[in-house]
Amino acid sequence: MSVDVLPAHTSHPPCILLLGADGQLGWELRRALLPLGSVLAMNRTQADLGDLPALRATLEREQPDIIVNAAAYTAVDKAESEPGLAARINAEAPKLLADYAAAHQAWLVHYSTDYVFDGTKPAPYTELDAPKPRSVYGRSKLAGEQAIAASGCRHFMFRTSWVYAARGGNFAKTMLKLAREREHLRVVADQFGAPTSAELIADVTALALHRVRTDATFATAVWTQPGLYHLTASGSTSWHGYAQFVLQQAAAQGVALRCAAEAVEPIATVDYPLPAPRPANSRLDCDRLQATLGIALPQWQLQVQRMLAEVALQG
């Protein structure tokens, strides 16, 4: 069985439809995907995954060669009271995208989450571990994964966790803001994962698509194997450790803080109750991705330092 690569040497570069273009990941993907083809970047106003007929019409009108779906329902706690909307955006819309990709021999890139696991495994999760989501959000994302896999379309599905970017809000920027205002912070210390930058996810996405576009042997190998990969930065920490690292870095750069890193109090998940349960272990084993693409994913601290430097430049 062989798979045609995307046209690399034609006068018409492939059309890449980017959904969720104004989100943290979507913003980074705009930059990363530009060298690969003609990028049609659409935000929620232009392509609402909650409006399936309109989404179908967009696909038929634009006829993309590649669909990169960076849009999702990500309000984890709100999803507990909006299961229908979460399912439509996170499961039904990806199925529609996958069915289009299968019918038109397009490639689909989709992003999923550590929330498909219950977080009870003591070691990092691999792609072979059975999902067991505990939240509405996690169940909706798993249903999206399953729909894409069942469609038979050419795809990459990247599960990731603890995503952040310099643009928009994120945990690190919230910690900096609170540390300027307060002398004491309390942060959960019994949930573990790898803070992962949207920039890293976007760069890996672009590399994967470049390879399938230019290397027929690679494209065939990817097509004939499961398209699910774990993608996070290397290493791991707790939310408490993450907060301390951010404040340590800020203090070293001369940022005036009322709360020092050592003044951040570790607390348990039960001391900070939320509507949706969180996985205690969000660590993902990324060996399969690294072997497939021949890359080494950076340590999480390096990416956070880059983000903090960029935030400092923004003032």
Describe the model.
The chain is of the alpha/beta class and 315 residues long. Helix content is 42%, strand content 15%. It has a six-stranded parallel sheet, sandwiched between helices. The N and C termini lie far apart (54 Å).
Could you list some keywords that capture this structure?
315 residues, alpha/beta, six-stranded parallel sheet, 12 strands, 42% helix
**What is the strand content?**
5-15%
Structural class: alpha/beta
Distance between the termini: 54 Å
Strand line-up in the sheet with most strands: 2-1-3-4-5-10
Low-confidence spans: 1-5, 7-11
Secondary structure: number of strands: 12
Average pLDDT figure = 93
Number of helices: 10
Q: Fraction of residues in helices? A: 40-55%
Element-by-element helix/strand order: EHEHEHEHEEHEEEHHEEHEHH
Radius of gyration: 20 Å
- Main β-sheet: number of strands, strand sense, barrel status? 6 strands, parallel
Overall form: globular
In short:
The protein has helices at residues 24-33, 52-62, 83-104, 136-151, 171-181, 198-214, 216-223, 239-252, 287-293, 300-314; strands spanning 15-19, 38-42, 66-69, 107-113, 154-160, 163-164, 185-188, 192-193, 196-197, 228-230, 237-238, 264-267. The chain has 315 residues and is an alpha/beta fold. Helix 8 crosses helix 10 (300-314).
Strands, helices and their partners?
Blueprint: E1 15-19, H1 24-33, E2 38-42, H2 52-62, E3 66-69, H3 83-104, E4 107-113, H4 136-151, E5 154-160, E6 163-164, H5 171-181, E7 185-188, E8 192-193, E9 196-197, H6 198-214, H7 216-223, E10 228-230, E11 237-238, H8 239-252, E12 264-267, H9 287-293, H10 300-314
Parallel strand pairs: 1-2, 1-3, 3-4, 4-5, 5-10, 6-9, 7-12
Antiparallel strand pairs: 8-11
Helix pairs in contact: 1-6, 2-3, 3-4, 5-8, 6-7, 8-10
